[in-house]
Amino acid sequence: MSESLLDLDLDRAEPVLLRYAGAGPRYTSYPTAPVWSEHYGPEQLREDLGRLGPRDPLSLYVHVPFCKSLCHFCACNRVITRDAALPARFLDDVEREIAAARAALPEPGPVIQHHWGGGTPTHLSPLAVRRLFGAVCEGFPLAKGAEVSIEVDPRVTTPEHVEALRECGFERISLGVQDFDPRVQAAIHRVQSVEETADLVARARDAGFASVSFDLIYGLPFQTLESMARTLDSVLAIGPDRIALYAYAHVTWVAKQQRGFERHDLPEPKLRLRLQLEAFRRILRSGYVHVGMDHFARPEDELARALRDRTLRRNFMGYTTHAGLDLLGFGPSAISELTGAYAQSVREPDAWGEAVRERGLATLRGHRLSRDDQERRFAIGEIMCHGELRAADWKARFASDFATRFAAELRALDALERDGLVSVAADGSVRVSTLGRLVVRNVAMVFDAYLEGQQAAPKPLFSQTV
User: Fold this and answer.
1) Residues near 386 by Cβ (< 8 Å), separated by ≥ 6?
2) Rounded (5°) CA angle 335-340-345
3) If pLDDT is split at 50, 70 and 90, which confidence band does 254 have?
4) 188-222: string of b/e by CB count within 10 Å (b at 16+)?
5) Region at 293 (left for phi over 0; alpha for psi -120 to 50; beta for the rest)
């Protein structure tokens, strides 16, 4: 599937893809977060945690919200600080939250995935990293061979951090890069040299990290085809095991600092699309597999293997290697994804800490999935992760006829089928084409029962799909 992307006629593909430009979810969940309600709180989460079986494997996510400086492109939940008191208070509070979640579980299952994101987790000192890791593992012990990963900023990650991370058991490290062009870096307030990035990769590999990932962004201010090519030259020379090439999300209603990007500084839609397509082709020519949407991996990487084995899953960490895990999230704004429910904590760190000290859990909102939600979540997940939805798999799971259940949605795919983005079989099975994989969000949107109402909302909710 990835090889034929190299053969696309970009001039012919461009007008088709641009027809599908518009706002849409990234489907790291279904239903998406705007659907969730504040009627779901700490007590509902405790009830749902209490239903987990003792042998059910778990995935853990810890959100560390602190950053040393503000990157102007970023819409993540973060606090800009150099005050050592804030991380210290965070550690006290997250330990309380972990203890409260553990108390709600009859017995925790084996943790087979453990991930930290942010913010900048290595904003914490090496000593604090060890303390936090110990607290998480005391409450939720790691299974042998668990995947343990972390996001880092090369500008603040020291050799002492690398040593502490490996001592804890982290084996996968993800580096924020975004772009190496000096003009782009100045515009987004993220000045980071190729040399310091390569040095951190070398230290990580020497320390025994099994996998290194890079995050890049296309569509940033002042990016050109030439500047993107130079960035990719540097990235590919370093040789990460995985590459995530995200579309810049211009969401000024979430990230006010993005308003400093005047519209004429951002690539216009045709250039933005060409940046994506040329970068994708360059990465594929270098031997990476297109895992899905914006993720690439070496053929021998676990993510590529999960794609081949149909065990790939999509959640709030993007594409991941294990299907069917219950995910517990800790820290401000962290999301827990359970078999039948979602729960999100209070976003603002001070308010989150206060809620943890008062109630143990800081759940702000959540959602329990109806039968319809579960069916549509399965359909959207199959499309997003595997590029196809097999009617036979549907029937085996839900004991009903897929083509009958989603007759209206299948009719809505007619236009995408005429444009060569999908093909629909007689039994209703949907296969996304190579071209369609570039707008796979638009394919998934057809199965979203809540989207029409969200699109009518007075304020925008989602980033652009193209």
Assistant:
1) 307, 310, 312
2) 20
3) low
4) bebebebeebbebbebbeebebbbbbbbbbbbbbb
5) left
On the question of pLDDT at 1 being above 70, the answer is no
State the Cα–Cα distance between residues 386 and 380, nearest whole angstrom.
10
Residue 18 lies in a domain: no
Residues 209 and 297 in one domain: yes
DSSP code of residue 23: B
| pTM as predicted | 0.92
**pLDDT tens digits, 111-157:** 999 999 988 999 999 999 999 999 999 999 999 999 999 999 999 99
Q: Residue 292: left if φ>0, alpha if ψ -120 to 50, beta else—which one?
A: left
User: What digits encode the pLDDT tens for the residues 276-318?
Assistant: 999 999 999 999 999 999 999 999 999 999 999 999 999 888 8
CA angle 250, 255, 259 (to 5 degrees): 65
Q: Domain with 424 in it: what CATH number?
A: 1.10.10.920
Beta carbons within 10 angstroms of residue 459's beta carbon? 6
Domain boundary among 367, 397, 421: 367
For every residue of 160-227, DSSP letters joined together read HHHHHHHHHT--EEEEEEE---HHHHHHHT----HHHHHHHHHHHHHHT-SEEEEEEEES-TT--HHH
Residue 113, beta-bridge partner list = 59, 147
**Short-list 231, 234, 221, CA closest to 184:** 221
CATH code of the domain covering residue 53? 3.80.30.20
Number of domains in the chain: 2
Whether the CB-CB separation of 365 and 37 falls below 8 Å is answered with yes
- The residue out of 343, 367, 391 marking a domain boundary is 367
Phi, psi for 292 (deg, rounded to 5)? 170, 140
Residue 314 exposure: Cα atoms within 13 Å on the Cβ side = 25
Give Cβ neighbours of residue 44 (< 8 Å, ≥ 6 apart). Answer: 341, 343, 363, 366, 368
| pLDDT value for 30 | 95
What is d(CA 122, CA 155) in angstroms, rounded to the nearest whole number?
10
Which helix (H) or strand (E) is 62 found in, with range?
strand 58-64
Instruction: Based on the fold, state whether residues 301 and 445 are members of the same structural domain.
Output: no
CA–CA distance from 160 to each of 99, 199, 258, 325, 342 (Å)?
Answer: 28, 14, 33, 32, 36
